[in-house]
Amino acid sequence: MGFICYLGTMARVFVYGTLKKGQPNYKHMINTTKGIAKYQGRGRTVEKYPLVIAGKYNIPYMLNIPGTGHHIAGEIYTVDDQMLRFLDEFEGCPDMYQRTTMRIEVVEWEGKSGTAEVRPASSGVMECFVYNTSTYQPEWVQLPYHDNYDSSGTHGLSYVLRENRD
Question: Where is the Gamma-glutamylcyclotransferase AIG2-like domain (predicted)?
């Protein structure tokens, strides 16, 4: 006789770049060997931030400069500890990106869980982990700011997958 008991906690993560649905690294969000990630809905940052596409691999970065740029659109997921550890490693945390807590305004909610820690507050704002960066190149501040990342957008800066980099 056996039964499965899940004792871990679920964390909320807001993704705004290549991990979103339809983007080049979304495959990692649905790969259960890396952990569990459950799509909850769409949101945007309460504060404005610069979202730039930088470097020779056209990587999206949210620069940790609150009050500058745009309200950034993205997706809210609940993730287990294993997926959070994978995301930390994938995002090069803490060197390339830092995982910080931000206030995210819920735009559309699909979350099926009725637990209070997962549901958005009546204000429609929730705290989520976000991978942004304070370790950016100074010249990135001069790049165009985006509000909704799409690798195949009109900017013409297609993301280069890790396996295709030199």
Answer: 13-133
The label of the residue with tokens 């060997």 reads 33
Residue with tokens 């490693």: 89
> What homologous superfamily is domain 11-112+119-151 in, according to CATH?
Gamma-glutamyl cyclotransferase-like (3.10.490.10)
Helix (H, G, I), strand (E, B) or coil at 117: coil
Residue found under tokens 């090069």:
92
- Closest Cα partner for 147 from 72, 75, 76, 74? 72
pTM over 0.70: yes
Domain ranges of the chain: 11-112+119-151
| Residue 59 and residue 65 in contact, taking contact as beta carbons nearer than 8 Å | no
Q: Which of 91, 121, 92, 93 is nearest to 109 (CA)?
A: 121
Question: How confident is the model over 3-56, as pLDDT tens digits?
Answer: 444 445 789 999 999 999 999 999 999 999 999 999 999 999 999 999 999 999
Active-site residue set = 91
Question: Phi/psi at 28 (nearest 5 deg)?
Answer: -70, -30
Q: What are the helix and strand counts (H, E) for the chain?
A: 2, 7
